[in-house]
Design brief:
Elements: H1 2-54, H2 56-86, H3 94-113, H4 115-134
């Protein structure tokens, strides 16, 4: 019976994951394409607005400078995030230390036994606790 439960849980977990990944990938790809089209039209609109005031060469230069500044900022962002993660954290409370220790231990358990075994064990433990509470 428990073996059937594990097989059922594994089938449900893998079936849902595959559907979720394909759904997220297709909608994410469509979102990226639409965002790219929006950025292109936004740059064209900015060019037309700036062209009326400053002329074509100056408008192109302004848009190029803004794009370069944004690009350099994007290239520097990983280094900034790396630097901010290296900063010593402020004094953590005792509860935060306990939560981080439990999280680390649970991730080690899941890595060692696998998520299905951990899920099944937690499920059966929950049943036994529920029986005790009900009685």
């Amino acid at each position: 019976m428990i073996g059937d439960l594990f097989r059922y849980a594994a089938n449900r977990a893998t079936h849902g994951v595959v559907e979720n990944v394909t759904r997220k990938a297709s909608w994410g790809g469509l979102a990226v394409i639409m965002l790219l089209i929006g950025v292109i039209f936004g740059v064209l609109m900015a060019f037309w607005l700036l062209e009326a005031s400053y002329g074509a060469p100056a408008a192109g230069g302004i848009i190029a400078a803004v794009c370069i500044i944004i690009g350099v900022g994007c290239l520097m962002m990983p280094k900034f995030l790396e630097w901010s993660e290296r900063q010593p954290p402020s004094t953590e409370s005792t509860s935060a230390e306990v939560v981080s220790a439990v999280k680390e231990e649970m991730s080690d358990v899941v890595d060692y036994f696998g998520p299905v075994k951990v899920l099944g064990t937690a499920f059966m433990l929950g049943f036994s606790v529920a029986k005790r509470i009900k009685s």
